[in-house]
Amino acid sequence: MDTKKIASIAGDVAIEFFVPGYLRAAYTALSKSREDVDAAESKGVASLEEEARKQQIVMEFQAHQARVSQELAIAERIANSAEVQIEEFYDLSGKGHTGAKADEQSITLGIGAEGRRVTKRVIRFTGWRDQAGQQ
Fold first, then answer.
1. CA nearest 38: which of 27, 63, 59, 30?
2. Between 40 and which of 47, 60, 78, 102 could a Cys-Cys bridge form, CB atoms 3.0 to 4.6 Å apart?
3. What is the pLDDT of residues 8-34, one digit of tens each?
4. Helix, strand, coil shares of the chain as percentages rounded to 5?
5. What is the largest CA-CA distance in the chain?
6. Rounded to whole angstroms, how far apart are CA atoms 76 and 68?
7. CA dist., res. 66 & res. 106, Å (int)
8. Residue 135 has pLDDT above 60, yes or no
9. Quick one: angle between helices 21-43 and 45-80, nearest 10?
10. What sign does the CA torsion over 46, 48, 52, 55 have?
11. Distance, CA of 129 to CA of 132 (rounded, Å)
């Protein structure tokens, strides 16, 4: 067995023991994604564009799953905390305007828009609820 193969096996073992499962899953997904892109790249631009669209859809789905997982983890931590403090601020606002001006020589039309997004989310957990007394 050559040095490169031994290093690869040692790396795989180290990843298995020291890296949390969700990071291993992300690493595996990124490796698979890179392999798919490389395979599509060798087939031409059309195949590469199709692979890019497919991966965009997959990434959007995974982002949605990550948000759901995060909310479930927060809900579980809330259920197990002795005290919870939540502050949430959301301000999504926007305004727009249109205008027209006409004179003897020209007509001018205009459209403008402005948007603002302010979000803040702070969740503080203190202690752990006594689970033995609840059963």
1. 30
2. 47
3. 888 777 777 776 776 767 777 777 778
4. 60, 30, 15
5. 87
6. 12
7. 54
8. no
9. 170
10. positive
11. 9
Length of the chain: 135
Would the CA dihedral through 30, 33, 37, 38 be positive or negative?
positive
Give the pLDDT confidence of 66-100 residue by residue, as tens digits: 888 888 888 888 888 888 888 888 777 778 878 88
Q: What percent of the chain has pLDDT over 70?
A: 90
Cα distances (Å, whole numbers) of residue 35 to 7, 27, 48, 72 = 21, 12, 12, 32
Helix, strand, or coil (residue 31): helix
Cβ atoms of residues 125 and 78 within 8 Å: yes
Residue 19: count of CB within 10 angstroms of its CB: 13
Interatomic CA distance for residues 49 and 18, integer angstroms: 36
- Please give the model's pTM, rounded to 2 decimal places: 0.47
On whether the CB atoms of residues 109 and 97 are closer than 8 A, the answer is no
Q: Give CA angle at 99 (92, 115), nearest 5°.
A: 15
Q: What is the rounded CA–CA span in Å between residue 101 and residue 85?
A: 54
Q: What percent of the chain has pLDDT over 90?
A: 0
